[in-house]
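Narrative of activities, Objective 1.

The group set out to show that a structural description can be obtained from nothing but a protein's sequence at a throughput compatible with the screening campaign. Below is one input-output pair from the validation batch, recorded exactly as produced.
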Amino acid sequence: MHRKGKSKTLKYKLGKVNEHTVYEAELIGIYLGHVLLQKEKSLNHGILSADNQAALKAIQRRKPRSGNQIVE
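Output recorded for this entry:
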């Protein structure tokens, strides 16, 4: 996250590359961005950008599918 000339980062080790998908990693990235925004006490609004249409649609639809535990 970039704010007032400073950067903040969160990291999460999902697991072995052969056990997870890019889709799952994108969902984790969106979640971590959300966590960073929530931690900002003096923030009225923020923008979270993502370029993975499948992940964004999964968040909007919430239908059962691969990675659903991450969406929830």
